[in-house]
Design brief:
Elements: E1 4-11, E2 15-16, H1 26-41, E3 50-54, H2 66-73, E4 82-85, H3 91-105, E5 110-118, H4 135-138, H5 146-156, H6 161-180, E6 191-194, E7 200-203, H7 215-219, E8 240-250, H8 251-257, E9 263-272, H9 281-293, E10 302-305, H10 311-320, H11 333-336, H12 343-358, E11 362-369, E12 373-381
Parallel strand pairs: 3-4, 3-5, 10-11
Antiparallel strand pairs: 1-8, 1-9, 2-8, 5-8, 6-7, 9-12, 11-12
Helix pairs in contact: 1-2, 3-12, 9-10
Length: 382
């Protein structure tokens, strides 16, 4: 039986908005991870059947099918096509799913699943060109900004601002520990960039984690969305720049090429959820994915639930009963950053590194997405 296996995954360091990666065009940045994954695996690019790349704000330098353009910039043969997809924050996680589905169906043998977002150069919502929701939609559903939805679920689930801030501080502390211990070293490719000041530098580390963050400092931040609210910049994901890529192929092709895969993709699940509160999708998706995979919550060694806002992983913990120690052990988007279209593959690369480090077997990735959706992926270390 054909299975989709992961040969390797790589990512750029994640840069803060208007920071270390802001001088790099997103199509150039995406080309760098495509070149690096080929260099690391030794697979000839002419064997790649497709490049599937997630990108949310497909306008300006991210328009025109950035997957195809990045492949050409990377020097891949013109025979290698590329397509760009948008499932909001889960765009590159969906790229992983589409790659696996194409392989399992027998349509393709080798696919690059990737993602990119330069939120410095192509601001969030710029692709909407100032438009709002259709009245036909708002007549049926309450459509909120994600920050308002985060406020709402914090209220529904009884989460205090102190709980949200404590979780956010822990995200930074875990990320800083991971950096000090070199846990991200395998997945991050050194990247040569020109800084805003004009200096050229090799970047090897994410810029998001803040060593000076304290619970007192978080407590002083003003609410971002509603007066006297609980959600602020410190317990929300960071606006960031970054790119990531994973090489996925069939187990049959890997054997034919004499390549030992690191992981196999066990399950691919996508669900819709209430668009007015958005963040319940990973809960629904986790339960569905575990049933489909014939696993239970205790079988999973590591959970990566995207930290779009602190309430999202906290309500997921409440509803699933998962072990909190297994959740985002190296920090999440609150500390590391959330380059929208790249985050799915970024999380995959981090989970692969962590499962290798602890000798774990199964990992589960859950991604909340705008308008009430979620992707959930289960992988197994081989």
């Amino acid at each position: 039986m054909l299975e989709a296996v992961i040969i390797d995954a790589v990512r750029t360091p994640i840069g803060r908005r208007n920071g270390m990666l802001s001088g790099l065009r997103p199509d150039d940045m995406a080309s760098e991870v495509l070149k690096e994954i080929i260099n690391r695996t030794g697979v000839s690019p002419e064997l790649i059947d497709d490049i599937i790349m997630g990108c949310v704000s497909q306008v300006g330098e991210q328009a025109g099918d950035i997957a195809r353009l990045a492949g050409l910039i990377a020097g891949f043969p013109i025979s290698v096509p590329g397509t760009t997809i948008d499932r909001q924050c889960g765009s590159s996680q969906q790229a992983i799913h589409f790659a696996a589905q194409a392989i399992i169906s027998g349509d393709m043998d080798i696919v690059l699943a990737a993602g990119v977002e330069s939120m410095s150069r192509v601001p969030m919502f710029s692709n909407l060109a100032g438009t709002g929701f259709s009245e036909s939609l708002t007549a049926k559903y309450e459509m909120h900004h994600q920050g308002i939805a985060a406020e709402r679920i914090a209220e529904i689930w009884g989460l205090s601002r102190e709980q949200l801030d404590e979780y956010s501080l822990e995200s930074h502390e875990k990320a800083i520990t991971a950096q000090k211990e070199g846990r991200f070293d395998r997945e991050i490719m050194p990247l040569k960039v020109r800084l805003p000041e004009g200096e050229t530098k090799i970047i090897k580390q994410d810029s998001g984690p803040r060593q000076d963050t304290t619970i007192e400092k978080l407590g002083q931040l003003k609410p971002s969305f509603i007066e006297n609210g609980k959600i602020h910049a410190g317990n929300s994901s960071q606006i960031s720049d970054g790119a990531a890529a994973a090489l996925i192929m069939s187990n049959k092709k890997a054997k034919e090429l004499g390549i030992s895969p690191r992981f196999r993709i066990v399950n691919r699940t996508v669900v819709g959820s209430d668009p007015s509160i958005i963040f319940t999708g990973p809960i629904i998706g986790t339960n569905k994915a575990l049933v489909k995979a014939g696993l239970n919550i205790d079988n999973i060694d590591i959970f990566e639930i995207n930290e779009a806002f602190a309430p999202a992983p906290l309500i997921w913990l409440q509803e699933t009963g998962a072990d909190p120690k297994k959740l985002n052990p190296n920090g999440g988007a609150i500390a590391l950053g959330h380059p929208l279209g790249a985050t799915g593959v970024r999380i995959l690369s981090t989970m692969m590194s962590e499962l290798d480090r602890i000798g774990g077997r199964f990992g589960l990735i859950g991604m909340c997405e705008s308008h009430g959706m979620a992707n959930v992926t289960i992988i197994e270390r081989l």
